[in-house]
């Protein structure tokens, strides 16, 4: 194993970052690029020993970091954001080679947002307070005490964005961190470790370990010294992690999958509704929040479908490094097989592919054609299960009542999107939807101070603004006599 690989001219350390040291493992796993299947490198494959070392480093660093003033913690978080901003181009190019998402969106959207994650939570920390109040002359004072070493486990679909959405508030709160990125996209987390060290984050405050979920992931989440586990990923993994956490009563935050609806009412601006629907193919459909179930009022279904097909057929699928590309590849051969399996089974059960329905083998990578399926039954797998690829279903409804019933008829509850020109209808429908986020005539507009998370199988807890600090802190109320 070599210690460093070069990805499009950017050097990336393939070892763990534990304490202030780079640490190798005897074993490795192979990281490949979804763009063309090329091998990017061999990455350290940690296990129980590396988990022990990383949690040990986080535990040793905790008392000093927890005692560091809020102002100093905020200063260092801003310095990390500066470091991210200086390296936006490098981070963007490495992330695109590693997970196949569009370079232009990494450059202009994702990596600036990574920096913003640090700035936002640094600034929020300085305003975080709770007014003292009195009980029979006694003062109640609420303090936000750091909870301790925190394990953060993240998926591959938006690797550095989702990792820093957890790392930034955990560090701001005064916790120390062990971050384990997904094995299909391990690289930018390693660059983040370099950036944090250069920004002056003390040794052991942020540790990054690499490896497989069932190995080092499991060792981390079952470790008795871990005081918080924050996980973003799939429901089956969350269930395994919750079992480990239950044995030690480790507090958990879970951000999981979805099968979100887009409800299009006849009174909607149809061009806007079509734009919203086509947007669901972003990131080749690998977005937890994607509204993959399009529910359209019967009276406009034909016109909506015609305009949708017209617009979706003009999407350009190809190399994610090309500025003109709209849809890149899917992450891994296993993911492509999984997507294709869902579509084949749906078609086998009578679904009709209005567009797409097969992989695109002509493009040389892991591409699946943007797909729209109609004639799907409400209780079918394709309507009920998350595909995590560019596959949408279209169903119709006759009444508002039916629209709400179909929208809520799922075990998930992450998000919902409405297209309607009637504000009263929007309010009525929104009040009845089970979802952590509802967008009305828009999609993906997010403010970090808003609560974010899912209901039902889409998650446990909320992150964002004060909710993140609520999770990463042990709140303490001190009652003082007059
Ligand atoms: P996954 O559950 O397979 O893996 C996620 C992470 O968990 C990886 O780092 C993996 O190594 C680790 N892991 C696997 N087994 C583990 C174990 N036994 N113990 C500890 N860690 C383990 O999910 P994925 O395929 O990487 O991600 C896709 C899923 O993530 C989708 O369901 C998607 O909807 C969801 N997601 C949710 C959000 C959200 O904010 N709600 C955001 C992005 C993705």
From TrEMBL:
Superkingdom of the source species: Bacteria
Lineage, uppermost ranks: Bacteria, Bacillati, Actinomycetota, Actinomycetes, Kitasatosporales
Organism in which the protein naturally occurs: Streptomyces albiflavescens
Entry's family note: Belongs to the aldehyde dehydrogenase family.
Database matches in CDD domains: ALDH_F8_HMSADH
Active site per database record: 255
PROSITE patterns: ALDEHYDE_DEHYDR_CYS, ALDEHYDE_DEHYDR_GLU
Domain Aldehyde dehydrogenase: 26-477
InterPro entries, per the entry: Ald_DH/histidinol_DH, Ald_DH_C, Ald_DH_CS_CYS, Ald_DH_CS_GLU, Ald_DH_N, Aldehyde_DH_dom
Protein name, entry field: Aldehyde dehydrogenase
Pfam families noted in UniProt: Aldedh
Residues passing through the membrane, by range: none
GO molecular function: oxidoreductase activity, acting on the aldehyde or oxo group of donors, NAD or NADP as acceptor
Keywords annotated in UniProt: Oxidoreductase
Record flagged with keyword Cytoplasm: no
